[in-house]
Amino acid sequence: MRLLQTFQLYDFFDTAVSLFVAFVLGTLIGAERQYRQRTAGLRTNVLVAVGAAAFVDLAMHLDGAGGAVRVIAYVVSGIGFLGAGVIMKEGLNIRGLNTAATLWCSAAVGACAGADLIAQAILLTVFVLAGNTMLRPLVNAINRIPFDEHSSEATYEMRMTIDVVAMPPVRDLLIEKLEAANYPVRDVSVIDRTDDLVEVVATLVSSSVEARELDAVVGAIAQQPGVRHMTWQVRTTD
């Protein structure tokens, strides 16, 4: 049998250690994700880490360090597809980026273990766990800071619901008033709501505004005939 000719006890032990280390470290990362009730939990992170370790270990045994480097490149791109599966878009919000990044790091931990860089794999696991746990209070503290529209870089939109027949002149007036206030318009889109109503969305070029100036534009446009509702909003893009 080919197995009897190729089996090497030392190589087998080396593979077992690599896979065991990847399993344990993947369990540590996945347990934290499971506790947080994330989409990719304990089993997913363990399988990613062990799978990456197995591929890299196989390449190391077949083609040495050169083969391992090539396999690692494919592991990185392959995990990108897996991570995309846990990212979900809900309106303007995107969920799952942290989970996808954690999967990516689990693959890196497995790759280190497969390449027999055990100490590096353990160190990376510590950093991953620290990023997902120790930084959480800092994130919550930052999120509680009141949003400052003037100092932030964001996308600003003027939105109004208006009668179809009144839309063209009021839209032109909106653009005119925004440009007069030194807020040029990047794009204007019209969304059909009903047979008689449309929503006009004007996206500004500016990434920082004075709230009172936009409020003044809203006040002037809201008084025009046919305008049912007028407001402006800000959304971050990064």
From TrEMBL:
Residues 19-139 form the MgtC/SapB/SrpB/YhiD N-terminal domain. Keywords: Cell inner membrane, Cell membrane, Membrane, Transmembrane, Transmembrane helix. It comes from Variibacter gotjawalensis. Residues 168-232 form the MgtC-like C-terminal domain. Belongs to the MgtC/SapB family. Virulence factor required for growth in low Mg(2+) medium and for intramacrophage survival. May be involved in regulating membrane potential by activating Na(+)/K(+)-ATPase. It is found in: Cell inner membrane; Cell membrane. This is Protein MgtC. It comes from the Bacteria. Gene3D superfamilies: 3.30.70.260. It is a multi-pass membrane protein. Its main location: membrane. The chain crosses the membrane at residues 12-30, 42-62, 68-88, 100-130. GO terms for cellular component: plasma membrane. InterPro entries: MgtC-like_C, MgtC/SapB/SrpB/YhiD_fam, MgtC_SapB_SrpB_YhiD_N. The keyword Membrane applies. Pfam families: MgtC, MgtC_SapB_C. PANTHER family: PROTEIN MGTC.
